[in-house]
Design a protein that fits this description.
Layout (H helix, E strand, L loop, with lengths): L3 E8 L8 H8 L3 E10 L7 H9 L3 E4 L9 H16 L4 E5 L6 H9 L3 E6 L5 H6 L2 E4 H8 L9 H17 L6 H11 L13 H6 L5 E6 L2 E6 L3 H17 L5 E2 H11 L13 H6 L4 E5 L5 E5 L4 H5 L3
Parallel strand pairs: 1-2, 1-4, 2-3, 4-5, 5-6
Antiparallel strand pairs: 7-8, 9-11, 10-11
Length: about 325
Amino acid sequence: MEDKRFAVLIDADNISAKYITAILDEMTKYGIITYKRIYGDWTNNQASKWREELLANSITPIQQFCNTAGKNATDSALIIDAMDILYTGKVDGFCIVSSDGDFTKLASRLRESGMEVIGMGENKTPKSFKAACTVFTNLEILLEQDEDKTKESISQETIKGAIVEIITENENNGRKTGLGALGNSLLKKYSDFDVRNYGYSSLSKFVEEMADTFKLHKKDSVVLVGLQNDSVKREELEEYIRECVWQSKGEGVDLAAMGQKVHKKYPDFKVKEYGYSTFQKFVSQISGVEIKTENETVKRLMEAPRASGKIRKNK
């Protein structure tokens, strides 16, 4: 099955250049980027930080002068280009990077045409645009996840973490991870990845060296890669967390306290072995629970209304 092709269109007027690495890295989960375009007034000093990123990431800048004060000409240019690309029939989806609700109609129109629409923007993005996308990703969360990764110097530990993420993502979607597919996914994330840089002659040798985290096994003629931690333990962890939330009888459990409970019951628990950079991200994917923010520092794990029956099923 061929990878899906995406057009990534970025609104430079309200998206910071600091997100670019996280944006492109996130898109490797969905497919191949065939268009990378960014829209803004490049004569404006505010665009200077973006100009530094264009060449490094092979992004095509689209100049759009602001001819009328108070009017966002960038929006119009991006929308026109999106429709032109749609009619070429050369892509399977779009990634619209903006915190501007004015792109709501565009996202809806693209989806009506059978396109997958990945939206990315800051937390302030209007709900209308978020709802119009097939998937919407908060850029602040991506940046937090990406802050320990650099493409200039890829440590073996970073590659190890990337492999965990790839395997976990596949497992969450009911897919196995073949050794060849794993190599392709790593190259999408890090175009200069080469196992010889780490002293190995093949990817299988590279993975085998990390036997504490990964396991290789052959099925028919395909070599598959999996995680050493078994799925039963993960299910047990998730059920334990759901049980703690249910026992709170509607009051919820402080997220930090929940982390302490888990580490006390499961001393060997390491969140990165499950493909997540923080305990919060691990918990957020558990069905039947949700995280509610009380203030800047306090977050509570609550029973999700729609899944209350699932939590109480075993009671």
